[in-house]
Every structure is written in C-alpha cells, then in structure tokens.
Amino acid sequence: MKPAPFEYYAPKTVDEALAHLAQYGYDAKVLAGGQSLVPMMNFRLAQPSVLVDINNINELFYIRENDEGNLCVGAMARHNQVETSSLVADRAALISDAMPHIATVQVRSRGTFCGSIAHADPSAELTAVSVALEGSFLLRSQKGERWVPANEFFVGLFTSALEPDELLIEAKFPALPERTGCALVEVARRPHDFALVGVAAVVTLGEGNRCRQARLVFFSVGDGPVVAHQAVELLKGKELSPESMRAAAETAAKRDVDPGSDIHATAEYRRHLAGVLSFRALTKAYDRAREKG
C-alpha cells in the first residue's frame, strides 16, 4: 500500500511548525519518528493532506534536568536516547524499565518518546508510565502554551487533549521522593508485541517500611491508562507484606479494571493477568524502595 497524496513541510523552528498547524488544523499531522503514523498512512487508516515534519527543529532534541529538579524530555528525543540516558535512569527508573519493552531496537532508534505519548495508544507502555510518574506535557500553539497533567491528557482511544493546532513540546517528570521504588511488568504473546496486559507500579515507603504512597497504572485493559485507585488505598499507611500486596492485586483485578475481549485474549484472562502482574510489580517496586532505605 501507498499513502494518499499529501503536502509536505519541514520547518526548522517551532514557530514555523505552529504556523503550519494553525493554517491546516485537522488536515495536518505532525511527523516525528513516524513509526506509527507512516504505517497507518500506508494502509490509508490515516490520510492527512499535510505532513509537518519536525525532524529539522534542533531545539526539540534534548533530555535534561530543569532548575526545579524535574526530568524534561524534548519532543524529538528518540527512544534509544531515553533508553540509554543515565539521567533518565537516575531520575525516572520506571521509564528505563519500560523502554526495552517498546517494539524493537530498530523502531526505538527512530521513534520518539513524545511521539508515543501524542499517539495515545492504550497499549503503549509510556502512557501508563507517564501517569504513574505524575508527569505533565507542555502543549504550544500560536495562541500560547499550557501544561496538561498526564492523568488528564489521555481522554480516550488514540485520543488526547492535544488540539489540532498544538504541538507537544516537552514531557516533564517530577523528582521522586526518597525511598521510592518503581517497576513495570507486562505479558505479550511474542517478544516486541503490544502487551496483552501491563502495569506500572510506584511505591514510596515511610517509617517502619510502611507504605506512604503508591500508584498502580494499567495499560492494554481499556481505552487509556487505567489507575487502580481502590487497590492502592488498601496499601497506604500499612506495612507491606506479601499478603497485603496480594490483596491489593486482587482488588485491582476485580474492581479497578474492566478489560474487554479480542482475538488475542478474553476479558477473563486479562483480568487474571491484571492480578498476577499487579502482585509482581508491587513486590518488585517494594523491594527496590527498601534497597534505597
């Protein structure tokens, strides 16, 4: 298959890119890594009449720490840059956990971190990770800019808060509290496939190894990242044990997620995986948090 005809622009500044997006609106698509967009265009699942290629905008290629100690990832930072970044590993180990699960080495050499976020695939690791890490995204248009928290950014299946005239400029992640451990686990039918179910866990310990804060976020079980609110409420303020973490995992599977069935797995099997993977993720995150103590 070949894509439908389109006009092509390769701006060298953010302002030029925003001008094209303002002019063409819904008819335009932003091309970053192209690892999702180009196959969709080839199958004509997406038929934009205009492509705005941001690969020539040098100011968007960065991974850095800002003055407040937040980890900042620019729109054109590629997956392999994020995967091998010592700053990312130090500041947001959960992201480092997630990167090897994303597609293949070849895809990660071209695909971009923020491109995956903007695509808003409910089966993508980075959607859940950004919510678990309480990240936020800088969206800019000719009318101004705004920060959108990750838990408000993903609004539906392949749908985000990003307006057609806006460009996702940066993903920002706050520094994690002391004695915080993270983990991401998933199950896929084959290596490099999208996960049947996956979960990201963040655990912060207080005095006596009691759970001060916890977050549990699923992917591939709904139209976007699914936060297990009821499960983590069982853990807060309690000393973590295999029994308490297993109870939280069971609650997550029974009450927090409502997966569907498809050709890859039944809803019942996905619910079973949600419980098993929750327990594994919580255990690993708890062990890592204790190591930091």
Task: Please explain how this structure is put together.
The protein is α+β, with helices and mostly antiparallel strands and 293 residues long. Helices cover 35% and strands 24% of the residues. The protein has twelve helices and 14 strands. The N and C termini lie far apart (55 Å). The mean pLDDT is 96.
Helix and strand layout, with pairings?
Elements: E1 7-9, H1 14-24, E2 28-31, H2 37-42, E3 50-53, E4 63-65, E5 71-74, H3 79-84, H4 86-91, H5 93-98, H6 105-108, H7 113-119, H8 125-132, E6 136-141, E7 144-149, H9 150-153, E8 154-156, E9 159-160, E10 167-173, E11 180-187, E12 197-205, E13 211-219, E14 226-227, H10 229-233, H11 242-256, H12 267-291
Parallel strand pairs: 1-3, 2-3
Antiparallel strand pairs: 4-5, 5-10, 6-7, 6-10, 8-9, 11-12, 12-13, 13-14
Radius of gyration: 19 Å
Tally the helices: what do you get? 12
Q: Please mark out the parts with pLDDT under 50 across 5 or more consecutive residues, or reply none.
A: none
The best one-word shape is globular
| Overall average residue pLDDT | 96
Helix content: 25-40%
The count of β-strands is 14
- Straight-line N-to-C gap: 55 Å
SSE series: EHEHEEEHHHHHHEEHEEEEEEEHHH
SS-based structural class? Answer: alpha+beta
Largest β-sheet summary: 5 strands, antiparallel
Percent of residues in β-strands: 15-25%
Give descriptors for this structure.
alpha+beta; 24% strand; 293 residues; globular; four-stranded antiparallel sheet; five-stranded antiparallel sheet
